[in-house]
Structures are given as C-alpha cells and as structure tokens.
Write a structure and sequence with these properties.
5-stranded mixed sheet, binds flavin mononucleotide, globular, alpha+beta, Alpha-Beta Plaits, about 150 residues
Amino acid sequence: MPSFIAVAYVSSACRRFTAEALDALLVDARAFNATAGVSGALLHQDGSFFQYLEGPESGVAQAYSRVKRSRRHRGLIELVAAPVEQRHFSTWSMGFAEPAASELQSIAHATWRAEHRAACLHPEPSPGLALLLAFWKRAQFDRSSAA
Ligand SMILES: Cc1cc2nc3c(=O)[nH]c(=O)nc-3n(C[C@H](O)[C@H](O)[C@H](O)COP(=O)(O)O)c2cc1C
C-alpha cells in the first residue's frame, strides 16, 4: 500500500495579496509540488489561508518546509500532519479556491485529527477533510457549470 502523509494548516497573509501575487505564489508552489509528487489545495479569503498538502513523506516535508520558511504569511497553525491511505487531490499540484470567509472558517475550525481505529481498513475522513472535500466538489461543479 503506498504510504502518503497529509498536512493541513492555517495562516495569515503578512500583507494583502494582489491577484498577481497570488498567481505568482501558485505558479511557484505548483512547480515545486509537481516535482516533489505533492498534491493538494490552497484556500484563500481576505488574507486568511488554509492549505492541504498530500503525497510521499519526503515531498510533503520539503514543500511544507518551504511553506514554513515563507515570509509572506505568519501565524501558521498546524491542524494535522499524519499518514493517509490515499490522495484526494491527485490531479492538483495545488488547487486553488476562494471560498466565503465563513466556509473557510468552518473548514479551519473543524476537527482534523481522524479517529484512529487500527482494525478499520477504510477509516472515515476527519470532519475537517470531509468539509474540505464537500466544498471542493461543489467548487468544481460551480466552475464547470459556469463554463
Ligand atoms: C500560503 C502559502 C502557500 C504556499 N504553498 C506552497 C506549496 O504548496 N509548495 C511550495 O513548495 N511552496 C509553497 N509556498 C512557499 C512559496 O512558494 C514561497 O513563497 C517561496 O518558497 C518563496 O519564499 P518567500 O515567500 O519568503 O519569498 C507557500 C507559501 C505561502 C505563503
């Protein structure tokens, strides 16, 4: 079974990100993540960030250490860093969405640590991951029906 880890965190922008600055961040992050085998999603609203990174342990560790070193944000709070059985964002080297502030807050404030049941082969996603996946599915649907 492939061994992946996932990390989720929240942080705050040091300065307001312009659309161009966000684009540049995504280009840079996606290029690194693609080579490191990392996938995931970045949510941003009004200076608040939430990010979910998943992939092989060494790739995630490298991307996450770049995240932690970045001086463009502060107040990083790690919500979870744990082994996972599967990827949920395999087609995204870093997906991006700007949810409503309330939606970002509910994802950020949900429980991210999954209950650990050793006997369970397919553990339920944590409440936080379930909210993120439901939001992501809706955001993709809205995008494709608007196209
Ligand atoms: C909110 C946020 C998310 C980021 N996500 C990633 C990422 O997924 N992968 C990655 O390699 N770097 C990521 N970075 C790091 C940036 O690419 C970083 O800006 C770059 O390493 C340059 O450092 P600097 O921001 O201090 O100039 C992220 C940075 C921020 C602020």
